[in-house]
Protein 1
Amino acid sequence: MPEPKEPKIRTDYNPSEAERETIKFVYNRKFDMESSPDRQDAMKDADKWEKQYEGRMGWKAKDSQKEEWQSRHTVPLSLSIVETALSELTEQNMRPLVLPRGTEDEAKARVMQRIFDYSWEVSDSDMLTYEALKDALMFGTAITQEYYLKDMKKITDTKDGKESERTVAEYDDVMGEIVKLQDFYVDEKARGFTGSFAVRDCIRRYIQNVDDIKLFFDNDTWNKLGNVKYVKAGGDTNYYEFYQPPQGINTDKECEVLWYWARSPRDRLVIVANDVLLFDGSNPYKHKQLPFVRWIDIKRTHRFYGKGECELLESIQDESDTMRRMLIDRAHLDIDKMFLVSDRLAFSDEDLMARPHGMIPVGDVNSAKPVEYGDVPRSVEVQLQHLSDDGIISTGINPRAQALPQAGTATEAAMLKEATLKRLRLKVWLMKRESLIRLARLRTSNILQFYPQPKMEKIIGDRQTQAYEAEIAKLKNQGLLVEKCSEWTFELYL
């Protein structure tokens, strides 16, 4: 039996046996996570939900067989439902609030709230919340990541005709970022980030230029193994041992970078780029949790991925589109009629084209006559209204409360809006318990880990610093101060 052929990458990069096992482990975990039935089901329809929201469902492959005059109109039902829900949810101004466990934490809670508000504004987390809510409403699930970012760049100063170069931090603070759902792989047995079925490990996938990878990783922090020089872009599948170049990327310049995060059985961070191990160590964050937050629209109790508004509206959207297109095609035919002609007449399509003052010369006036259509029955309009009502029943959201003027009293308008808000309050409650509490805990831990004392004092100001120190001294005198890391609870501004 012939021996397995050695991959070409081993002529350049020959890792130790332990490194090779680690690389194999990461790619095997990615395969297992990607093959999960729950993820396969969610990813299979993700593109469909995006097209449904964008109104591009009418441009399917089978529609290429349509005539030019046939309608491809799409009813903006999914878009209106998502945007209506989004407008109400963002108006709630959802933001975590730091509260003390006891009286001994009151001074610390006030200081932490001030610092947390600062980090929220600096990182533009209101926009992060908006993006997470939109992804959750469209796809059913959204993922955000909490981390610390120090983005350095070189700038050139000119003084007295001389140029000097210096390095500055363009951004140096905590950060929250929306993660593309297709680039996130999660433990196939997980149901959430908490509880007995909490996520044990996960992978975030990046597609990066090979030069950017070397610029980012070539430092003492990330290049302890010294392997970044071996990273190579390319689409030759025979070159690699475990890595398979994905489709849809520029394999001449781009690489697939996998960040593998583990919480159990031990905290771990492994970074692999195109079959090259770049980093293998412990979780750099002191909270030792997976730095990700899940946002859910409609929760499936025994599954990680939720259900979104587009999925609820799928069949309703398809039926509405079909009926509206048929009615528009019917109107086209009624305006630009077909003709019944004698088989003895030789007419071209141009002869029968409808046009003002157009004439068709024939010997017999009865030889050519248009096809007349009856009026559209009232039942068609009723069916369209039923489809619209089904959309409101399934989502609990009536876009007419915002999008269309309503004839009726102010009481009727208020009842419409209240009916929508009832369903949305459930979404707010779920996102509070599922997402914002976890986000606040991760970010607070990152603030305590990465904010130096001078920065905290600068944020809260001299007056607040003095008040905090006076409160601490008062509690010490009363014997109420507990000298240990206090816990925080998080509620919402509603």
Protein 2
Amino acid sequence: MKTVESIRASTYDGPLTILVSVDGKPLDSDIRKQLIDLGVRVIENKERGGQVARIRQIVSLCETDLLIQTQDDILFTPHTVTELVKGFEEHPNVTMESGKVVPLPATNFFEKVVHVGVSISYTIGKHWNRGDNYFLAGGRCLAFQTEMAKKLDMPEEVLNSDTYLYFLNQKLGGSFYHVPSAIYFMRSPKTLADHMKQSKKYQHVSKEIQHYLGIDITNVQPLPASLRVLAFVQELLRNPLLALCYLGVLFYTRSQGKDMYENVTRFWDTDASTKEL
């Protein structure tokens, strides 16, 4: 609900259609009424289909030139939509865009540690391949030329839909552009258990892209080790304690292996603490 309200508060003065696709679990009647009162088209699917099924459904129903794909756990600024649209206007050959994620203020120490990782990831993404890389293709806020979006079909078993869409867009001749002024807010994991779910899903990405698209991302976009070191050193100088704690968390998550998502198809436990906006 808060996500929709933040979109409706947008300063964008063009036509704006909001479609919400509900995956299996029925909406509370009061929430449904509030969404409809906000001019939202609500589609309630009786059977759970998973994230990719919902993305595919929304794309199939889109009748506008541009599509902004988002989730229910982020908050837009009043200028987010405007900046994404402006990005396409200024770069007409771009077919896929991303906004810039900014963590909400931390409510506990673990969130502060995770924020170090968010900052490191963004520093890497900003400098790697001039900002054209899957680190910046955050799935919680992606925008597309709808004509291209309808070509970006995904198997419903795909877990890392953002990375998949980034490389498929590239494979089909599209281009990607990160819009740093299109800011949106997100809650970071509050617990190690929730962070592990995100981490292990990410560790699965290389194998997944190889399996579905036949692309070895380590060869297509080799990440310079020096860039990783530079990003970490910057955080170490900024906040030594949090940076060292993050390094410990990073080593721990990598030591747990990559098997959590090996046999997962379409459904997995969500990281509940990131839904608390």
Protein 3
Amino acid sequence: MIETHRLLALIPAHNEAANLAQVVTEIRTRYPAAEIVVVDDGSTDGTLALLERMGVRWLHWPERRGVGCAVRAGLRYASMLGFDVVLRLDADGQHDVEAADRLLAPIRAGVADAVIGSRFTRRPHGRSAGPIHRSLAAVLSAVTNRVVTDPTSGFWAMGPRAVSLLAEHHPRGYPEPELHLLLSRNALHVREVHVRARARLSGRSSLTPARLVAAAARVLLALVIVPLRAAAGTSARD
């Protein structure tokens, strides 16, 4: 069992100035002892000026690198400072912080290395998801030998083994589907728990249909490349 005294809430953000303050407030209310780090992925909407006033830790890049790079940077920060558990959630308000305890519980009990908040676990194999989501879920379920219902969820809890691995090897770009493959290839224990999907507080999602298709193509490529690599924890480098 992990006694979690150092919880880091990691928020990658790109042009979410209108939503970020409420997300941070929700985290502080639910987990007052947690530290919060926001990784500003090249925002152009005043996010940086907002961060300077919010009293949170933050990293900033002048140009956009992608959410995967932002999450990797946050995990490196966590690893360097010795955080036991990282809760990763988006800056748009879609992730209900009240549900985070369900993600953290298997980590704290020592029965999972990573836990995903899935929007579709209470429906047969993600039936309410779109066709690309369903196809990705089916492929990842077959390859990882576990049920994957929400391959693009950005709501994760990560324990020490996952933080150590992903601080160096977290996929870049729009990474969530590839992340399932990476964790499986490195024999980490992953669970899904059901979470309620909320509407964005404001603005539009950056995960457009075109980017979702690109993510699916990257997964198909990874299905060919990843089995040819050694486990990332040994000699392979992402």
Protein 4
Amino acid sequence: MITDMEVCCECNRLNFQRLNQKQLRADLYSGLQDAMGAGMEENVNQLGRQIILSSSFIGSPRHMHQQYQDAMAICRHFGKPDFFITFTCNPEWKEIQDALPPGFKAEDAPTLVSRVFHKKLDALLTDLLKNGVLGKAIAHVYVIEFQKRGLPHAHLLLILRAEDKVHTVEDIDRVISAEIPDSDTDPELYRIVTQNMLHGPCTPQRCLKNGRCSKKYPKPFSNETVWHDDGYPLYRRQDNGRTILIRGKVYDNQWVVPFNPYLSKRYNAHINVELCSTVRAFKYLYKYVYKGLDRATVAFSVNQDANNVPPENNEIGQYIDSRYIGPCEAAWRIGQFEMHGRNPAICRLQVFFI
């Protein structure tokens, strides 16, 4: 029901865009410039009447590209990001389980799941941006996405001030761990890590590509953290014999997703913390964050009519094609929760060519 409501709302907003092209000043878009930006220069037959989906529509390709350009402006001023954090909702949170009616599961209450995750995300941002858990943050961007099974998650890129940046492998080990904790000295962290921070099982539906894990698990053992000049560091993963049996599969330190012990214990969720200050091609990180919606498109060639009229370039139709909306995303959007955020603010300067 809630998904149908969001589909109706989105269709109404898209209809406004479709029926008000003049008010959106679609005629001011440069046909050749937009075609080059959209990659249509390879086939000039695609050039024709355009139906524009403007950047004011949250989630549209133009909007995501605009947000990416804003993020690049932040990087140009403050430098490369230091941490790449992925925060995923945990349906087993006490706040969710205690509020569920008898006989209900978390997937039966998408509104509850979205509201609890929104509150948890606010608390995480407070810890990172105001309390300086990983260091004093001077700039950040984050984007909310939704898994196919419905759980919301946030991608966060954090830039720290110069005195708080990570410079040595000792600093990395102080902030990030990639090992199964000792169950005797810290049983709570052991439980959280073994429930939330183990990668797998690898399946073709998840990460197996040509028989190999696309995330490159299992990782190699390493007695100490190795600093890389380009790419993520090789985190310390000692072959200390710590294992756990889950659904018939034995996991060791090679399968642990990097995490911060404090954040994992505080939020009891999957919080992947990666040091990305050593990544040279950091633009890829922002392109990944602002990649937009997951879609699959199948194209069929159609013969043009006798008049050889160029087809429409319908950006609204392209946006709708293969669009997937789950219950949690529907609840999130109906609740008008933010889909992205950044700091500091960006002032866009319009450039006109005469």
